[in-house]
Write a structure and sequence with these properties.
This protein is of the alpha+beta class. Helices cover 43% and strands 12% of the residues. Strand 2 and strand 3 form a beta hairpin.
Amino acid sequence: MFAAALSQMLAQADGVRVVACAPTAQAAATLIAAHQPDAVIVAEADRVGAADYGSLLAVQPDLPIIRADLNADSVQVITSHRIGIRPADLLTAIAELPKRKTESERHSARRAATAGTRRE
């Protein structure tokens, strides 16, 4: 039901075209190969039967996956980046990783996001 509602909402948005909906990751893989979308949105209400993002990214490495969870207050964007096999390539990739936020920074960001969504 969440996926259907999300699909309808996106279909009405300017600049977005929904090309397919799939009930499982396996069915999605077939549709992704056929439609070659710019991104995939995975709508989940819980983590039971969660999609295997690693196998999907292995066959579609440049495909961003946007994970929307009904029980979360944010979405997760999952991407894959291929690097060379030399140790220097790995070290460069590690150095370029974004700095992780501290628990305090994450808490402040959640509070600010909640404050921004309150209705008067």
